[in-house]
Write a structure and sequence with these properties.
Elements lengths: L1 H4 L3 H6 L17 E2 L4 E2 L5 H5 L4 E5 L2 H14 L21 E4 L2 E5 L4 H17 L6 E4 L2 E5 L6 E8 L6 E6 L2 E6 L4 H11 L7 E8 L19 H13 L2 E5 L2 H10 L3 E4 L2 E2 L3 H12 L4 E2 L8
Parallel strand pairs: 3-5, 3-6, 6-13, 7-14, 8-11, 11-12
Antiparallel strand pairs: 1-2, 4-5, 7-12, 7-15, 9-10
Bound molecules: 1,4-anhydro-D-erythro-pent-1-enitol.
1,4-anhydro-D-erythro-pent-1-enitol (R2B) binds next to strand 7.
Length: 299
């Protein structure tokens, strides 16, 4: 909803810029954003991106294009938006579309992939002198103990041990970063969801894993060394710790956005699939419902 998503007067007054925490960047003659096929010498980044206020990121390029077309219509911009151009067309690593103040960017699957994109996106927003930017991941995920088709708005991203932390390996050190997301933004999004009928929406923790199979307790990977009971025990413990869905990007997303002055939120939808129904049956027998993310298109 435009009403509840509009930043209040104080937010404008604060003018929160997007910052980078790298003393070397300023002294660099040129900054090349390798995987976006953009750069400070080749592109006028302030002219191209200076008005960006919202960045929406998600795994799949096609979905992010469809989202940009949707935004084009929602914002009632000129033309039908069908021929919207991929700003990163020079590379097939990620794609990026701009509709008014909304940037739609794909990030691929998993922490390393989204992390590379976020480094370059944050530098892009910084070079473009953007301020008061809100970033929202609108990815897919597998739900735990919630109704199929639900939308989970993440309050905190947690790791595989249900801890609100992201462990970044820097050279041969492990640095622990916080994964808190903007609570006010989560509440704003939740209030918006009340205006959309028939889409069950809730706020909860999102667990981020390094792997889709063994890391998520799946029994259908090429490797599986645990029993069905162990899997269910793990997922139940996750549920008790407040986890309502599982995906593969939220911890690094929360950590990086938090450190660089971006107001961040996660709003993954739960994929509905045939496999889910199977797992759901299994869990129903066990007194819980699990919405699995198997079988859907990777996203
Ligand atoms: C959700 O879906 C993908 C795996 O299928 C991954 O990117 C994620 O977080």
């Amino acid at each position: 909803s435009n009403r509840s998503m509009r930043p209040d007067k104080n937010t404008y007054e604060r003018k929160r810029s997007v910052y980078v925490k790298n003393p070397y960047l300023e002294g660099m003659d040129e900054d090349i954003l390798y995987h976006l096929d953009l750069g400070t010498k080749t592109h006028n980044l302030p002219a191209m991106f200076g008005d960006v206020k919202f960045v929406c990121v998600g795994g799949s390029p096609n979905r992010m294009k469809a989202f940009a077309q949707f935004m084009h219509k929602e914002l009632r911009l000129e033309g039908d938006g069908e021929d919207i151009e991929d700003i990163c067309a020079g590379t097939d690593r990620y794609c990026m579309f701009k509709t008014g103040p909304v940037l739609s960017v794909s990030h691929g699957m998993g922490i390393p992939s989204i992390s590379i994109m976020l480094h370059e996106l944050i530098k892009l927003l910084h070079h473009a002198h953007c301020c008061d930017v809100t970033i929202i991941r609108i990815g897919t995920s597998g739900g735990i103990g919630i109704a199929p088709g639900s939308v989970v708005i993440t309050d905190t991203a947690v790791d595989s041990f249900f801890k609100p932390r992201f462990e970044q390996v820097i050279l041969d050190n492990v640095v622990t970063r916080s994964t808190e997301l903007d609570k006010e933004l989560a509440n704003d999004l939740f209030n918006c969801s009340r205006e959309i009928p028939n889409v069950p929406t809730l706020i909860g923790h999102t667990m981020c894993t390094y792997d889709f199979y063994e890391g998520q307790g799946r029994l259908d990977g090429a490797l599986c060394s645990f029993s069905r009971e162990k899997k269910l025990d793990y997922l139940k413990r996750a549920y008790r710790a407040g986890v309502r869905n599982i995906e593969m990007e939220s911890t690094v997303f929360a950590a990086m956005c938090g450190l660089c002055g971006l107001r961040g939120a996660q709003r993954p939808e739960i994929r509905v699939s045939e496999e889910r129904q199977k797992v759901e049956r299994l869990w129903k027998n066990d007194g819980m419902i699990l919405v699995s993310s198997t079988g859907g298109r990777p996203g």
